[in-house]
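Table S2 (text version). Query chain:
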Amino acid sequence: MRIASYRLSSIVIVLLVTVSAGAGQVAAGQITTIRIGGAGIDPLEVTATDLAKMPRLALDVKEPHTGEMQHYEGVRLSDLLLKAGVPLGEKLRGQALAGYVLARASDGYGVVYSLAELDPAMNENQIIVADTMNGKALEPKQGPFKVVVP
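Corresponding structure-token output:
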């Protein structure tokens, strides 16, 4: 019983990414932020303005339900993780390999990614936090941010 308890206690949320409304207002609605926090990293809040200033990546993705091609632009999720001090690259070794990201939307929807699958040093991932689709801001029902996995 003690061994099982120890093993469970070593599984921690390394990162929790949430999207929520802030106190300020913009023309079409509230300012939104991406909040990154978790065990062993610095809490980080990123606004849409911050995201727009970061290195960008564009992806063309086929929408699975309609077959339509969509052009997304945004920031690699791994770049946001690095900004928060998440161990990636040479630092992603040993116990850190068991780390994961829980990305949770403001409506409660969530998805889990392992740090290894998000680390560009381990694979050629192109997972982004998109803020535009087809050259326009995301629709309110989709955004303001969307994790896009090609």
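Notes on Table S2: The CA atoms of residues 66 and 142 lie 16 Å apart. Residues 1-27 have pLDDT under 50 and may be disordered.
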